[in-house]
C-alpha cells in the first residue's frame, strides 16, 4: 500500500518507520526546508540552536523506538544524564535539583519538615500512575471509551486520580509553595493551569525525579537525524519544501495529495501536521468532523515566545536547564490562563546547552534558548514586544547571576506565536497542542481515524496521547498499529 505522511515531526517520523517496517511504501511530505517539525535546528555564525524541544525525559521511549527498528540509542547519539538535572531561581534563593535521589530528598527536607518522607510517598504513587498509564491508556488509540474497560486498566484506575486536580493533589501533600512550583512546572510548560490538569500527571514528576533528565550530545536534532536514518533504512522517500495544499476525496476515500505543482496519488494518508489545519484547510467543509464551536472551546496548552541567543563570554551562574520562578508564580498562571494576556512579569525557562556540549557554540561563547509561556491565540506580533521581553530576560539573568549579557549578544533570533502559525500551521499559535485536561483525555481528544474518510488518519500532539516528545513518538506508533491492524 502506498502511504503518504504529512509532516516530519517526531510523530510523522515514528509513524513512517512503523508503517514502512510492515512493508508499506511510505513517502513523507514536509512543508519546511528541513525535516523535524518543531524539533528543527538552525545554525548561525558557529552556533547550533535546537528550535523546539530541549528536555529529554522518559529515555525508555526513545530506546524502545530504536530497538523496535533493530538499533539502539547509542548507535545514533551519545546520551548523558545531567547532574544537577536543572536549577530553579526563586526570588530569595536558588535551588539545584540533583540527579542523585538521596540528595534530592535532602533538598525537600530543607524546604519542608518531613519533605523527604512526603516526596517518597508522592513518587511511589507517581510511579504507580506512570506504570499504569504507560502500559495502558497511553498506548491506546482513543477510538472509544470502551477501550478503558480492559481489566488491567480498570484495576489501575484507582491509582490514576483522574478526578482530582494536580494542584489540589500536590497541596494536600506539601505545604511549601516552592515545592508546589517545583512539582507543577511541567504542567505550566506542557499543559494548562494545574487546577485544570488531573493528578494523573504527577507521573511527569516520576519521569523527572526518578528517570532523570538527559541530553543527546550534539543537540536534540541528533534524535531527528537518528529517526531519519531509521526511516530511510526502509526506503521511505522524503519530500521537503513540499507543503500539501489539499487532499482530494472520492466516495469516502482520500486518493491524492495536491502539492503546488503536482498531484500525488495515494492509498492512505497519515496527517502528522496540525490537526485543525488539515481539517479546515486541506479538506472541503462538508468533510469536517468538528465545528468551529468545538475548536474554539478547546483548552490549548501554552504558546510561547522563544529567543535564540548567542552570547560572548561565559555566564557562570547558569546550568544547562534553568527555571526563572523569581516573580509571582500565580500571577503568570492567571495571566495566560484566565486573563489571557501577555504576562507582565513572566516566569521563563533558559536552556544553556553549551554548559554540557561545547559543540553547540564557538569557543568562548554561550548558546541560550529562552522560552516564555504565553496565551495561545495572541497573534498580534510587534517588534517592540520582542525587545521588551528580551530586556526583561536579560535583566533577570543579571539579577540572578550577576552577569550582564546585554552588550554581549552576538546572535539574536526570535520565534513568536505567529511563527508557530507560519511554520507549523499551529492552531492559535499553540506550542504544545491540547492541554491534558480531564475533558481532553483519551477518547475525548480529536480522533486518530477520520469519521468521514475511511483512509485518513491523524497523529501528533493534538490527538492521543498528547503533547511532549515521548507522547508524540508513541502517537506515531499507535496510529501505525491502528492502520496495520485495520
Word description of this protein:
With 486 residues, the protein is α/β, with parallel strands linked by helices. It folds into three domains: 2-77 and 218-298 and 434-484, FAD/NAD(P)-binding domain; 104-208, Guanine Nucleotide Dissociation Inhibitor, domain 1 (Orthogonal Bundle); 300-423, 2-Layer Sandwich (Guanine Nucleotide Dissociation Inhibitor, domain 2). The chain is built from 15 helices and 19 strands. It has helices at residues 10-21, 59-68, 101-111, 115-135, 151-160, 166-173, 177-190, 203-211, 221-233, 275-282, 292-296, 329-339, 383-401, 417-424, 469-484, and strands spanning 2-6, 25-29, 41-44, 47-50, 79-81, 86-90, 94-97, 214-216, 237-239, 246-250, 253-258, 263-265, 268-271, 303-312, 321-325, 348-351, 365-374, 409-415, 456-458. The strands form five sheets. A seven-stranded mixed β-sheet has the order 7-6-15-16-17-14-18, sandwiched between helices. Strands 9-2-1-13-19 form a five-stranded parallel β-sheet, covered by helices on one side. Strands 10-11-12 form a three-stranded antiparallel β-sheet, with helices on one face. Strand 11 (253-258) and strand 12 (263-265) form a beta hairpin.
Amino acid at each position: 500500500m502506498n502511504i503518504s505522511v504529512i509532516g516530519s515531526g517526531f510523530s510523522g517520523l515514528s509513524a513512517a518507520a512503523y508503517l514502512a517496517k510492515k512493508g508499506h511504501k511510505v513517502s513523507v511530505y514536509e512543508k519546511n526546508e528541513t525535516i523535524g517539525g518543531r524539533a528543527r535546528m538552525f545554525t548561525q555564525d558557529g552556533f547550533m540552536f535546537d528550535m523546539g524541544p530541549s528536555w529529554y525525559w522518559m529515555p525508555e521511549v526513545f530506546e524502545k523506538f530504536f530497538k523496535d527498528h533493530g538499533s539502539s540509542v547509542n548507535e545514533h547519539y551519545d546520551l548523558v544524564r545531567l547532574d544537577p538535572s536543572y536549577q530553579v531561581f526563586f526570588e530569595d534563593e536558588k535551588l539545584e535539583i540533583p540527579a542523585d535521589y538521596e540528595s534530592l530528598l535532602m533538598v525537600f527536607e530543607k524546604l519542608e519538615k518531613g519533605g523527604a518522607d512526603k516526596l517518597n510517598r508522592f513518587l511511589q504513587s507517581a510511579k504507580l500512575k506512570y506504570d499504569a498509564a504507560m502500559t495502558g491508556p497511553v498506548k491506546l488509540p482513543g477510538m472509544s471509551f470502551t477501550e478503558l474497560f480492559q481489566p488491567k486498566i480498570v484495576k489501575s484506575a484507582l491509582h490514576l486520580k483522574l478526578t482530582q486536580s494536580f494542584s489540589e493533589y500536590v497541596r494536600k501533600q506539601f505545604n511549601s509553595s516552592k515545592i508546589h512550583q517545583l512539582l507543577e512546572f511541567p504542567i505550566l510548560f506542557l499543559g494548562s493551569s494545574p487546577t485544570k490538569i488531573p493528578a494523573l500527571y504527577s507521573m511527569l514528576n516520576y519521569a523527572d525525579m526518578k528517570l532523570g533528565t538527559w541530553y543527546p550530545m550534539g543537540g536534540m536534532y541528533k534524535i531527528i537525524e537518528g529517526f531519519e536514518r531509521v526511516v530511510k533504512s526502509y526506503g521511505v522517500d522524503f519530500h521537503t519544501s513540499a507543503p500539501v495544499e489539499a487532499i482530494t476525496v472520492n466516495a469516502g476515500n482520500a486518493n491524492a495529495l495536491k502539492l503546488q505543482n503536482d498531484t500525488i496519488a495515494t492509498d492512505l494518508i497519515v496527517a502528522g501536521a496540525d490537526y485543525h489545519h488539515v481539517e479546515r484547510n486541506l479538506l472541503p467543509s462538508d468533510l469536517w468532523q468538528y465545528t468551529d464551536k468545538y475548536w474554539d472551546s478547546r483548552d490549548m496548552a501554552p504558546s510561547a515566545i522563544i529567543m535564540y541567543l548567542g552570547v560572548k563570554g561565559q555566564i557562570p551562574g547558569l546550568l544547562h536547564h534553568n527555571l526563572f520562578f523569581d516573580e509571582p508564580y500565580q500571577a503568570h498562571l492567571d495571566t495566560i490562563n484566565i486573563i489571557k494576556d501577555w504576562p507582565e512579569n513572566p516566569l521563563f525557562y533558559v536552556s544553556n546547552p553549551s554548559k554540557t556540549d561545547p559543540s553547540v557554540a564557538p569557543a568562548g561563547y554561550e548558546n541560550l534558548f529562552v522560552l516564555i509561556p504565553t496565551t495561545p491565540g495572541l497573534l498580534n506580533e510587534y517588534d517592540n514586544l520582542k525587545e521588551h521581553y528580551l530586556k526583561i530576560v536579560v535583566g533577570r539573568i543579571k539579577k540572578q547571576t550577576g552577569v550582564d549579557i546585554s552588550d554581549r549578544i552576538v546572535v539574536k533570533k526570535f520565534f513568536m506565536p505567529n511563527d508557530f502559525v507560519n511554520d507549523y500551521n499551529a492552531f492559535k499559535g499553540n506550542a504544545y497542542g491540547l492541554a491534558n485536561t480531564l475533558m481532553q483525555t483519551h477518547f475525548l481528544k480529536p480522533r486518530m481515524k477520520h469519521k468521514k474518510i475511511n483512509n485518513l488518519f491523524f497523529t501528533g500532539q493534538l490527538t492521543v496521547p498528547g503533547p511532549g516528545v515521548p507522547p508524540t513518538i508513541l502517537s506515531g506508533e499507535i496510529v501505525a498499529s491502528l492502520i496495520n491492524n485495520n
